[in-house]
């Protein structure tokens, strides 16, 4: 999996591409989030539009990131999950836990509200 990130309006935006398999990618993503929280950035958007596959460890990583932000009175949203990932979130009922938006602009608007 490839990832990039940027800081926009005090919101960390993480772009993921490929397969989100937690044991391979999790520690690096958690470190990025820990660093952002240390720098007083408490809002995050994760762009899942180019994620093809996610296993249970990948789900665990997303839950870990969300928990870290919420423990600091912050929030995290998911941007435009692919159809396959959206079905997975629906089946696991995680669509009730995560806020899911259609665009980066919508994510920034929600996180700044």
Task: Describe what this molecule looks like in 3D.
- The protein is an alpha/beta fold.
- It has one domain: STAS domain (Transcription Regulator spoIIAA).
- Helix content is 45%, strand content 33%.
- Helix 1 runs parallel beside helix 2.
- The longest helix is centred in the N-terminal third of the chain and has 17 residues.
- 33% of the residues are buried.
Give the N-terminus to C-terminus distance in angstroms. 31 Å
CATH topology: Transcription Regulator spoIIAA
Order of helices and strands: EEHEHEHEH
Biggest pleated sheet = 5 strands, mixed
> Strands across the major sheet, in which order?
1-2-3-4-5
* CATH architecture designation: 2-Layer Sandwich
**Tally the helices: what do you get?**
4
CATH superfamily: STAS domain
Q: Report the CATH C-level class.
A: Alpha Beta
The total domain count is: 1
Poorly predicted tracts of residues: none
CA radius of gyration is: 13 Å
